[in-house]
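Data availability (excerpt). The following record was deposited with the supplementary files.
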Amino acid sequence: MQSNTYSPTAIFGSHTRYVVPLFQRPYVWNRDEQWEPLWQDVRSVAERLLEPQAVTAPPAPHFLGAVVLDQQSIPTGYIAVRRVIDGQQRLTTLQLLLDAVRRAVQAHGFPADEPALRILVRNEAQIAGDASEIFKVWPTDRDRDGFRAAMGEDEVPGQEDSPLVRAHGFFFEEITRWALDDGEGVPGGSPQERLNALVRTVRDHLRLVVIDLEPGDNAQVIFETLNHRGSPLLAADLIKNLLFQVAEQQGADVERLYRDHWAPLDGDRWREEVSQGRRKRPRIDMFFQAWLTMRLRREVLQDRLFVEFRELLATGGTTAAALMEEVAADARVYQGMVDAPYDSVEGLFHYRVVRALDTAVVAPLQLWLMRWDGSDMPEEQRHLALGALESWIVRRSLCRATVKDINRLVVVLLRAVHEAGPAQAGKAVRRELERQTASSRYWIDDDQLRTILRTAPLYRQLTRPRMRMLLEAVEDTLRGPWGEGQPCPRQLTVEHVMPQQWDEHWGEDVLGDPEAEQAREDHVHVLGNLTLVNDRLNPALSNRPWTDETTAARGINGKGKRSLLLEHSTLKLNALLAVGHEKEWTEADIDRRTEELIDHIVRIWPRPEQEGPGTAVVTENTAVGEGHGASGRNAAAVDHHGKYRGLWRWLRDQEQSRIPMGFSKVAEVAGVPLPDSAYNHMPHWYSYEGSALCRAIRDAGWRATKVDLDARTVCFVRSDPEG
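Predicted structure:
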């Protein structure tokens, strides 16, 4: 067999078909494990092409892996055919990506770029024997309809849920969003220039290792050998071998270097698999990715750890021994980040941001801040930096605003603290976060946070670790400086004060009144109705009534929920609940407690006041259409001529004061599709700045509440029901 490395242009540029045998498994790649990481890698290369230095120092190609092909005997004059022995998922996904780029270019790019991609996804129809031969890749029989639906120009009914269709749609949406980003999330350039960089990336800056079988090669044996599950080398193993080889060449005492610096990194804890999102990676490889990003102050891709380290060693002007000593020292700092106690600022940051919010991507900045001692970086500067970043992340997470751009923001912050120096690091981080105005980077302000948290069904929107962390933080604040000093216990369970099945013992006053029933249901999952209890008390509380009297009247043994909380819980959250509400727990009580908890959240994660042009300052009135912090203005309908005039007109003509709707119905009423951000980002419904949809709702005299991105529902409420 022969092995060569090729670009997509070399692989797909001629009239060739890559046919997947019928016995191979169907397409199984998915968004979390393959599509999204692939897009992030490709996007990163394209963004490096957009940087000025790319003219003289183009980025290194990105390797996609290997495929094994078997040449088929085809008569002269026909399209060449190769059978795909291994790598069919990779080849198929690459075709879906190429075609998604082509369609985005067709809509928003330079006209000359589309034909350059078309030849990579289509054979010429006039030389094709049948309709399927126009496709460069032809999958196994179970995937063919889905592939035609994704790649073809004609509709194939019944394939909406095909993973191939969803993969193509994912790439197209991400590419379009990236190309049209008008904020600071993407390097400079027009959409056409960005797409041109992406075209050059997918044509010439990706690489596949192609293994061509020769006559006599046993395809099955080679397939089994390539897919044998041995113990793969980690990037850290390659880095270690390189460092010690170079250190030996430089005359260093390698045995002493290993004993003094590297030996701890060979321990089991460093090779332990650690969760990062929905994937798991060895801790030591995660460390090297954070370390290289910190050291180079640019994004370092997972599959380029060894290459980037090798280049640093070759060009960094330091010896292997010195670099090894630096790595070992920072590895100790990295481990200290993980082990920091809960009662420290550093430990709380790691628990809340990295663990509860699952945002390990901040590790490069966290490592930079932690590696300085007190003589270089005053403690208050490190605490200021960690506090500002934690506030930025928590606020965006609570509002379900995207944090996908945070990896690039971390690089921006690294450059800012490097320029400012450790003595001013905290001020530099806060200043840089304050100046972000792009929708993907804006530091959510108090008014927008309050507007969203008042009605958001947080229990359904946040994962349990995130919900617990939020309530734990409030509990810690309530204990105050005069208490006994113990932090809130971890791993408690989230409890609904008014139970989820409220109709069993909490509904006699509203059952039969649809509007009152809905109002009660709307209050169940909001912040003010949630608290923490241990896993032993939780089942005892269940759906039982609030007071002892109601509990006895219903023939239920034991006491009411209030008494159980008062007697068995030591949390301040529950003490205030029980003491302050002796007779009942109603929707009005939930609303008041929601406001109280929001007050705590705003104080725990403060954001500096910011005014002036370019900031998305959103107040409660702004959320219903006041704009720029104006207050006291009547919210009656005003004339509107924007894109969503159909929705404006429809809302203006409604007589009721509360209208629940699905997103699809909103789009139908508006007469135009909703933007992707309406399906993915809560602020799009609440924020005046930059949201044409919100302006239409505002101008009709309404506001959006109860936005549920998972269920894709919203409830419109008249801003001035009396008017």
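Summary of structural features: The longest strand covers residues 62-71.
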